[in-house]
Design a protein that fits this description.
Blueprint: H1 4-7, H2 22-29, H3 33-49, E1 55-60, H4 69-79, E2 85-88, H5 90-100, E3 106-107, H6 114-120, E4 122-125, E5 128-131, H7 132-145, E6 154-155, H8 157-175, H9 182-189, E7 193-195, H10 202-211, E8 218-219, H11 221-237, E9 242-247, H12 250-257, H13 259-266, E10 276-280, H14 295-300, E11 313-315, H15 319-333, H16 346-360
Parallel strand pairs: 1-2, 1-9, 2-7, 6-8, 9-10, 10-11
Antiparallel strand pairs: 3-5, 4-5
Helix pairs in contact: 3-15, 4-9, 4-15, 7-10, 8-9, 11-13, 11-16
The structure holds nicotinamide-adenine-dinucleotide.
Nicotinamide-adenine-dinucleotide is lined by residues 61-62, 89-91, 94, 197, 200-202, 248-250, 280-283, 291, 318-320.
């Protein structure tokens, strides 16, 4: 008799039935390859990442909001208290504005004549279509809004998005609609949203153009780096877990993960890394790029707690498939959580990190610690991936 049964669950699916629930389908039919990884992702998210007071950061890349995933998945996750803070590309926030402003996007086709589309003033994101006026009207909205007095100073992107979200929320109220925009929902639920490359989107382009006029709005990227680290430090020092839910990869993936090296390597504060890592991506690891870098590689940087490596999941599948499934699974398996409203705690968390930095940080080289890679006691047993822990 093989010893496999002691190490792994038996691979035994059940037949798919009529009217099956998403969670049941995932648990009984997603057994191997990326289906297996997606099932592990669902369980990791629902059973560990959102367990208790665990703090969950989500990073967004790829054209997710144009595809409607803001409304279908990201807002429900925020509303249920399952996503506490976000790092997004500017593009996802810019295209989110179209929905919040009541504009129309269409489910088209990837097989259209782009020269004809250009002539007809139609924009294409793969199979998503909308009028060029959608861009022009959204740009005008951004330019008009950021003329307000509350925008006339240097600020981090979480504050910028909060202020912008309030205007989108007001527009939703005028239109008589609700929960159409991630920015508006984040404003209402106190979910801080950062962007790692503020100049690299149409939002940044409009901010830049207004700087040529008399706008005083400048983005404080240092505050973004320290504020995101402060969120993670507050979670870990308060005894909660810190999890990263990475959609795609890109600069937002690194911006979320670098919070741990910022705490340990740069600020000299003792920490072990994020507790749980979940990524859905098409990026491969063998090119050396950060988008495809595995959780194992992240462990070597101190980004992920080595104790939890068996629980980390990478699912190589399109986010437009994985995100709705993970969302449906979590909403049906876990009770909604009290909103953490991290935005309301931003100054307090920032000051707490600054205090620790002045206690431990220095300008000179910081001593290298290797003891943090040793496993903590009492962490043995089987992980959600079915793999045995090494401890
Ligand atoms: N109008 C705009 O404002 C606009 C439009 C497009 C892009 N941009 C900017 O360009 C930059 C790049 O953005 P991007 O989001 O296109 O990132 P990207 O194409 O660099 O993708 C990042 C990573 O995510 C992966 N990925 C992308 N889509 C995925 C999906 N559906 N499923 C799984 N993995 C996926 C990619 O393979 C890559 O590894 C950003 O700074 C963004 O703001 C701006």
């Amino acid at each position: 008799m093989s010893s496999l049964n002691k190490k792994f669950p038996r691979l035994l699916p059940t037949p798919i039935k009529k009217n099956m629930r998403v969670a049941d389908l995932v648990d009984t039919a997603f057994k191997a390859y990326n289906g297996g990884r997606l099932a592990e992702a669902c369980r990791l998210f629902s059973e560990k990442m959102i367990a208790g007071d665990g703090v969950v950061g989500m990073s967004l890349t790829g054209a997710l909001t144009p595809a409607g995933l803001g409304i279908s998945a990201i807002i429900p996750l925020m509303k249920a208290g399952f996503v506490d803070w976000i790092i997004s590309t500017g593009a996802n926030l810019y295209h989110d504005l179209h929905y919040g402003l009541g504009m129309q996007l269409y489910a088209g086709s990837p097989f259209l004549d782009d020269v004809a589309l250009r002539r007809d003033g139609i924009i294409r994101i793969y199979d998503v279509l909308f009028d060029y006026d959608v861009l022009l009207d959204t740009d005008a909205f951004v330019r008009q809004v950021i003329q307000g007095p509350e925008f006339q100073h240097t600020m981090a992107t979480d504050e910028f998005h909060y202020l912008l979200g309030r205007y989108v929320y007001e527009r939703e109220r005028l239109l008589g609609v609700k929960e159409t925009s991630v920015l508006s929902a984040a404003y209402q639920f106190g979910v801080p949203i950062f962007t790692s490359s503020p100049g690299d989107s149409s939002i940044g382009m409009n901010v830049a153009a207004m700087a040529l006029r008399d706008s005083k709005l400048l983005i404080d990227v240092n505050r973004d780096v320290n504020q995101t680290a402060a969120i993670v430090y507050a979670a870990k020092s308060g005894g909660a877990t810190s999890s990263v839910f990475i959609l795609g990869g890109g600069s937002p993936k690194n911006f979320m993960l670098q919070t741990e090296p910022q705490i340990q390597e740069v600020m000299g504060i003792e920490e072990r890394g994020h507790d749980y890592f979940l990524q859905c991506t098409d990026a491969r690891p063998d090119t050396g790029g950060l988008s495809g870098a595995t959780p194992g590689e992240a462990v070597s940087w101190g980004k992920i707690d080595p104790d939890n490596l068996p629980d980390c999941v990478v699912c190589y599948a399109d986010s437009t498939i994985t995100l709705p499934i993970i969302t449906a699974y979590a909403l049906s398996k876990a009770a909604p959580r009290k909103l953490k409203r991290l935005y309301d705690q931003r100054d307090k968390q920032y000051e707490a990190l600054r205090t620790q930095y002045f206690k431990h940080g220095q300008v000179e080289k910081i001593g290298h610690r290797t003891d943090l890679a040793k496993p903590k006691s009492g962490r043995s047993g089987r992980s959600v991936t079915g793999k045995k822990r090494s401890a």
